[in-house]
Amino acid sequence: MNEELDIIKNFNLLNSFNAAINNVDANNNKNLRVGLGYDIHKFSDLSDLSSDFSILNSKSSLNSVNSRCLWLLGLKWSNYPPLEAHSDGDCAIHALVDAILSASNLGDIGSFLGVDKSNCENISGKTVLQRINKLLKKNNIELVNAGVFVLCQKPNISKRRKTAEKLLSEIINAPISVSASTTDGVGEIGQFKAIASLALALVKFL
């Protein structure tokens, strides 16, 4: 008898859930869009020093890459070599931008950061994100929220995750969550040769 009551209870709960979904305003739902973004960059030639990144603190090593270092999630990671790119190589922000543009049906990051665009050389990811924010406003689009996932062996993202979330959220005026994982030494990412990022964004057309 108790099992029958549980079945009836669960059935009623399911019906209530379905009714709630069916009662959602369709006009609001159709204005929501999801976009996916992905980017990967390899480390500079200094990645050969991966067994001891601290060597980058030396003056000679820093000069060998014009005093550049890793930029990721809008943050500077001074003890790590830069990622090779036409811009600052911040693959996390690049993935986030692609996700936002995809959801907004506004193209992709290549439209803004193509290697043929000399005015984008060494441009920071934060500057790009600021431009995307202005583009969204111009097109009456609102970023509801987004998540950025970083796949890397180093650096340790968890130590600065909250700082990155606060920074990105303030730039784009929307909640941004950050998560990360390693490959446990597998592949080029696990061998300190590259960093990859994946992002999902939800936007609303106003």
> In CATH terms, what is the architecture?
2-Layer Sandwich
In which order are the strands of the major sheet placed? 1-6-4-5
Order of helices and strands: HHEHEEHHHEHEHE
**Class computed from helices, strands and strand pairing:** alpha+beta
Going by CATH, the homologous superfamily would be 2-C-methyl-D-erythritol 2,4-cyclodiphosphate synthase
Q: How much strand?
A: 15-25%
Rg to the nearest angstrom?
A: 21 Å
**The top level CATH class name:** Alpha Beta
* Main sheet record: 4 strands, mixed
**Helical region count?**
8
Q: What's the mean pLDDT score?
A: 80
State the end-to-end CA separation.
Answer: 52 Å
> Tally of extended strands?
6
Percent helix among the residues?
25-40%
List the domain count as a whole number: 1
Low-confidence stretches: 1-11, 17-22, 47-67
CATH-assigned fold name: 60s Ribosomal Protein L30, Chain: A
Question: Based on CA inertia axes, which overall geometry fits?
Answer: globular
Describe the structure.
The chain is built from eight helices and six strands, in the order ααβαββαααβαβαβ. With 206 residues, it is an alpha+beta fold. The protein has a single domain, classed as 60s Ribosomal Protein L30, Chain: A. The radius of gyration is 21 Å and the shape is globular.
Key phrases:
globular; 60s Ribosomal Protein L30, Chain: A; single chain; disordered N terminus; two-stranded antiparallel ribbon; 206 residues; 38% helix; 8 helices
Question: Layout of helices and strands, plus pairs?
Answer:
Blueprint: H1 2-22, H2 26-29, E1 32-42, H3 59-63, E2 70-72, E3 75-77, H4 91-104, H5 110-113, H6 125-138, E4 141-151, H7 161-172, E5 176-181, H8 187-190, E6 194-205
Parallel strand pairs: 4-5
Antiparallel strand pairs: 1-6, 2-3, 4-6
Helix pairs in contact: 4-6
